[in-house]
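Sharing a chain and its predicted structure for anyone who wants a worked example. Both blocks are below, sequence first, tokens second.
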Amino acid sequence: MSTLLADVHGCHECDATVYGFERAPDREGYLKFPATIGAVGPATLLFVGINPYRTVRNELLYEEAMASLDAFGTLAGNREPHPGSTSTPYIRRHIPGERRRYGREPFYDQYMEVIKGVWEEDTAFEEHAVATELYLCSTVGIGNRAFVSASLCAARFFARTFAQVLPKAVITVGARRRV
């Protein structure tokens, strides 16, 4: 496992009261995403969001991903981290009527539209792309916290993420909460 993956998994540096981060049950660190989800190593595209958010539908995703460094690595490779299955892509094209373990994540539809527009219809996200966030820890709901301009996650991990991915293009997504 990469040191970036292990460093992010164990990180709990931010003040949870400022950002609304929550600790993983019975573990060090907060409920979060790995620094990269998708290609392992270099990729053509790097999607950069603000922070992942938890809902009732996807809360189990964060708990399962943080259960172990191996599970965290599984999610980093764009596979759902639940025990017994590591073959289902996490970021994938929406199939109407599909029931997903963690609920549908419509946020990733725009990522897949870019993939579909540049490559073949059935191209897997991890063949050409990586997703990351400026804040890797999750918050409950969408836009419930006003983030300060300087992200400790970005300061500690973004340069390392960029050096690992070496993207040809960076696509920023998301919107800051208007206060």
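Comments welcome. The chain has one domain: 3-172.
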